[in-house]
Amino acid sequence: MNIPVTFLWPQLLWLLVALPLLVLLYVWLLRRRKQAAVRFASLAIVREAMGKGPGWRRHVPPVLLLLAIATMLLAAARPMASIVLPSQEQTIILAMDVSGSMRAEDVQPNRLVASQNAAKAFLAELPRHVKVGIVAFAGSAQVVQPITLSREDLVTAIDKFQLQRATAIGSAIVVSLSELFPGQGFDIGAMTYNRNSDPFAPQGRAIDQPRTEPKAFVPVAPGSYSSAAIILLTDGQRTTGVDTAEAAKMAADRGVRVYTVGVGTVDGEVIGFEGWSMRVRLDEDSLKEVARTTQAEYYYAGTADNLKKVYETLSTRLTVEKKETEIAGLLALVASILALFSAGLSVLWFNRIL
């Protein structure tokens, strides 16, 4: 596997030029030792006194020491590499569709039950330190379980889902953001009905309350907020609430990734309830756009098994990540081990350090 490596102090790599000089010095010392041995009157007497020579073992400690020096010089240049590390994402919001279309049975036993089972399996796989909140949405969106570490409370909230009419995908994203950023004053009503050109502006104040200017919001790079993520599961198209693209832009401006999961069939299925019927279709294009805007990924789950696999993938994706980090400390550890092996073998074989 090819792992690209960069250096914060590449100019220090010039110190590696000293390695060939050390090799030449070692060769010169070996030759000098041989020349000193020639001065004895009889080499046979020397060989008999010394016994069998160390052979290849005499070169092992110096080679290990040379590798230790080379590793330390590389560490001094402060190398950076993209390696897999535990993710810093400590909070996940599950935004789950509970609209009437989730009663469709193209995903067995039906879309709602399949999504509930998959979500509970997902929670079981997450590390215990990861906090989770749950947002349920249909015609509106609401927090059914605030952010918590209690898996039991989360499972209870999932089991209590009740089907409702309509699908407010954008509202689900905004409510999820309000749970992650409770101090930003999201006003879904203003966003939905355009009551105010600035949906985050204060809607009123007491007479004796001093006028304060709202704190200016500064967007960040999409996907840069590494402390939380949103998983949005739906089986239909937006029919009400906040515009989906606008909500996705809000998440992107705050650096929050929104991983979207489409459950059901793209062609849709006709469902009926209390005397009415309608065809429900999966709007993949919108979900893909949400994921693209927020620098996340879209997953299609056409069956219950696929939905479980999607959640398994997300569990891995959200608990480990590739991250560029400095590995100088790791190289320094390797250098120390090599140096210790070099000294240890020298003492073991020759009763001296090198």
CATH arch. level architecture of the largest domain: 3-Layer(aba) Sandwich
CATH first level of the largest domain: Alpha Beta
Intertermini distance: 36 Å
SSE ordering: EHHHEEHEEHHHEHEEEHEHEH
The CATH fourth-level homologous superfamily of the largest domain: von Willebrand factor, type A domain
Structural class: alpha/beta
Mean pLDDT over the full residue set: 81
Largest sheet: 6 strands, mixed
- The DSSP helix count reads 11
Beta strand count: 11
Beta-strand content estimate = 15-25%
The residue ranges in which pLDDT falls below 50 over 5 or more consecutive positions are: 195-204
- The spatial strand order of the largest sheet comes to 5-4-3-6-7-10
How many discrete domains?
Answer: 2
Q: Supply Rg.
A: 32 Å
* Approximate helicity band: 40-55%
> If you consult CATH, what is the topology of the largest domain?
Rossmann fold
Q: What is the global morphology?
A: elongated
Write the layout of secondary structure elements.
Blueprint: E1 5-7, H1 18-38, H2 43-50, H3 60-76, E2 79-86, E3 91-97, H4 111-125, E4 131-137, E5 141-148, H5 151-159, H6 169-180, H7 188-193, E6 228-234, H8 244-253, E7 257-263, E8 269-273, E9 276-280, H9 284-293, E10 298-301, H10 304-319, E11 320-326, H11 328-350
Parallel strand pairs: 3-4, 3-6, 6-7, 7-10
Antiparallel strand pairs: 1-2, 2-11, 4-5, 8-9
Helix pairs in contact: 1-3, 3-11, 4-5, 4-10, 6-8, 8-9
